[in-house]
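Sharing in case it's useful to others searching the archive later.

Someone asked me privately for the predicted structure of Dipeptidase, so I'm posting the question and my answer publicly. Question first, with the sequence:
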Amino acid sequence: MTLRQALLSLLFFASLSATVAAGVSPRAQEAADYAVSKYETAMTETLASLVRFETVAREDLPLASNPEFTGFKNALRSKAQALGLEYQDFGHVVVIALGEGSEKVGIVTHGDVQPANPAKWQKSPFVLDAESEPGKLIARGSEDDKGPIATALYAMKAIKDRGVPMKRRVELLVYLAEESDWEPLKDFLKTYPTPTYNITIDANYPVVTAEKGWSEVQVSTKGVLPKGFDKPYLENFSGGYFRSQVPDEASAVLANATSELLAAIRARAATHKTAVFEFTEPDDKLVISARGVATHSSEPEHGVNAVAYLADVLSVHQWPNNAAGATVRYLNDLVGTGIFAEQFGDIAYSDEFMGPMTAAVTMVKETDSGLTSYLNLRRPTGKTAPQLEKEIRTALASWQERTDIALADTAISLGTPYRVDDAPHVQPLLQVFRHFTGMEKAEPVAIGGSTNAKLLPNAVSFGPSMPGAAYTGHSEHEFITVEQFRLNLKMYTAMMIEIANL
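And my answer, the predicted C-alpha cells:
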C-alpha cells in the first residue's frame, strides 16, 4: 500500500467513525442524502396532491360515502403503487408497506384534518400555497398530517431505491378519523398484528415520550330575562370554531347599552394589546367582535384567546344572569385570560417532567343544553382523575352558591396522560435527531397534544415540529417550511433504517 493509499484509507475510516459516533450509520446517512437530492420536488408535489382533499369529518356523511376521503385514498393508492410500495385499504386505516419480516416498524399518522375557514387564508386552505410567503408551504394538513405522510412515502422510496437491507418490515399506518373518532382505530388494532416498534409522526421533536390527557369541562347556562327588560344586558355571546383550537374570533351582542357602559368597555379593551376589538351598532344594538390568534389548544401559549379576552372586556359590568350574562360571569370568575386554570378553584397543578395542566376555552355556542362553553384541559400525571373531577365539581358548586347562578348542565371528561420511559427505540431516535440537527443535548420531551401513540405499545412521537416552534396544525395559518420539510425527509429516511435494523 502506498503512502497516499494509506492516508486515504485512514481518512475514510476516520470519517466513517465520525459518522457512526455522530449517531447514524453510513447507510442511513447515504440514503437520507439521496432522498433529498432525488425526491424533494416530488415530495412537495405529492403534498400538493394530498391537501386538495377536504378530509374533514362530517356528521351527515359517513367516511365510506364521503368523496373527499375516497379521493384521498385513491391518491394514496396511486402514489404508493407508483413508488413500488404495498398498499392495503382497511376502511378507516390505510397501510402502505415496504419490506419483509415477521417483526414490523409502525409509522403512525393520519389523513383527516380539522376544518378551515377560507376567509382567513390568503389562498384556499385546500390548495398548497408556496407563493404567498416564500419558504413556507401553506395548506390545511401541511404539518398535521399530510406533510408527514408525503415525507414518509419518499423516505420509503429512497430506501427501496438504494436497496438498504432491513431486518424489519416498515408499515405506514394512515388513520382517517384521528381528529374526530378513535373507536375505528381501536377496533382495527384488536385484530391487526401490532408492530414491534411504533412511532407517530404527528407531534414534535426530539422524541415525545409523554402526552397530557385531552380533557374537557362543558358548562351550560339557560337563564332568561323578564319580557320588556330595559336595563343593559348581553343578548348573545359566542365564539370559537372547533374544540381543539384556541379561538381567534368571538362576538357579543349588547342591548340597552349606555354611553357610560360603552366607554368603560372601550377603556378595558384598550388595556389589551394582543387582541383586537371592533364595535358596531346595528339595529339599536351594540356588537363587539374580538380578534385573537388561533393555535392548537395543546399549546395555548402560542395563541390569543378571543373568547377569553372578550369576556374580560365585558367584566366592567355585572350583567343580568340570562344565558349570555351567566356564561360571561363564569368565564371571568373561573377561567380568565390565563392558561393554567389558576382561577378554577384548586384544580391547577404541574408535573416535574410533563409540566403544568393547561386550560383554554375553545368554543361558546348554543346547544340542546343551553349556551355551552367548552374548556379544554391538557392534564399531566401527578393528580388522579377522581381527585381532579372532585375539585372541578367543588369549584363549580362553590361558584354557583356564591353567584346565585344555577348552571343548566355540566359535563366533565378527563383523558388519561400517556407516558413511556423505556421504549427501546428512544435512544436511536435521539441519535438520529442529534446527528441531523446538531442539537447534541436533545432529550425526550412531553407535549400537551394527544396522538394515536396512546393506543399502541411503546409508541413514541418523532416530529414533524421542531422544539420551541409553535405547532401550526389546527391554526388558520398552517404551514411547514421548505427547510423543515427537507430536514424531515432526511431524518425520517434515517429513522426507518436505524429502527428497522435494531
